[in-house]
Amino acid sequence: MAIVYDIYQREAPQRLPLLSAADPSRVLVRRHGEAVTAAQFLVHVHAVAAGLPAAAAAVNLCEDRYAFLVAFCAIVLRGQTNLLPSSRAPQAVDEVMAAHPGCYALGEQALDPAPPGYRLMPSLDVALPPETSTSQGDTSWPMIPAEQVVAIGYTSGSTGMPSANEKTWGSFHASNAGNLGMLQAAVGGHVEIVATVPPQHMYGMEMSVLLPLLGEISVHAGRPFFPADVAAALAEVPPPRLLVTTPVHLRALVESGIALPPVAAVVSATAPLQLELAAAAERCFGTVVLEVFGSTETCVFASRRPTVDEDWSLYADVVLHPQPDGTAIEAPQLGTPVTLADIVSLSDGGRRFRLRGRHADMLEIAGKRASLSDLSRRLLAIPGVQDGVVFQLDAADALGVHRIAALAVAPGLDEHTILDALRRAIDPLFLPRPLRLVSALPRNETGKLPRAALLELVHHHD
């Protein structure tokens, strides 16, 4: 059982374990068909940590999930901070490094071009000495100061510029306790995770890094992308299996028709999960589809099963305070309340909530109101539209109204056909102009749509 770190206790623990439970033989990672134990993992962590330079922070660019786990813990052991850009694109990495002078970048692959000060990790495929790869009864696991800032996560930029969010080891212990409690209630104790999301993203960090470290859960080292790769990765781990994914990857799995090994549950996040897709996934794979709610700023603090309930259930000790322009969140992992732009209504004595939209998502034109998320949902509901989004442009017209634009992936349809369908579903005031047909939306690794990329695509068409 993971140690729960309650930041509201008067006498909070000063140091917390890097790994939960002193069991050197527990399987932490499944990699290349082999089981990697906690003891083997720590040998690699210490070896990598010994070779790291003196610095305050490092950009963790590892793509292999095991390499990321090793690098993450090695950086933490050196008292340094993992910098987690919103993507591994050179510009995103350069911007993060510029904000942290003197930092370096670390990865397991040769990069060309490589960021300044890039360091290549030693091979993690070397055979370990027998005395270090088996349990010797050593329970002296590393302990980390609870207040040490172990990571700085950057938002995706879907609503503007990426912003930095510090995470302490104590806050990660607290947020992991919430996720672990949710999974234990839904699927029981131990699960084997396969994740399609990168570990640099906070959702990927919580579900594929912290859970194995602090929850006595095993994780597959890969990050499968195509449906066949996901099926193969799931087949490489024993049951009960947990697939951590996004609506974009889940839709691809459903539409592929590929068979999956038995999956105890699917967890989805990063974008709203349509009820129809959740129901289709449950039918196709004979599983339970769960959706978690959170942000880079707050970490996950609520969950639901969309096919059963529209309302979200809060994690233990989370309190919401609805406000006119959003919602303030109190949670064990937060030192002070964080306000998100989401508008909610509470029920069940404040333990459940329903989303009503986002403050920045709401539109008002000529006294009429609509939400961008609802307009996007209606666009996606048009037969033949495979992907799409409605958003507001920066520039205002002569009357001061910000135009609404849309991008759609709809082979076989033209713009007039889509607009005619939208006219039957929404008020004409909210028809997107321009509406552009594109071959693909500029989604990032987690399926999100950075606003800058959307604007660039519209302007490119113009």
From TrEMBL:
Keyword Lyase: no
A UniProt-annotated Pfam family: AMP-binding
Record key words, sorted: Ligase
Gene3D superfamilies (UniProt xref): 3.30.300.30, N-terminal domain of ligase-like
Entries under InterPro entries matching the protein: AMP-bd_C_sf, AMP-dep_synth/lig_dom, ANL_N_sf, ATP-dep_AMP-bd_enzyme
Residue ranges constituting the AMP-dependent synthetase/ligase domain according to the UniProt record: 24-314
Signal peptide start-end: none
Keyword Ligase attributed: yes
Protein name: AMP-binding protein
Naturally occurring in which organism (per UniProt): Rhodanobacter terrae
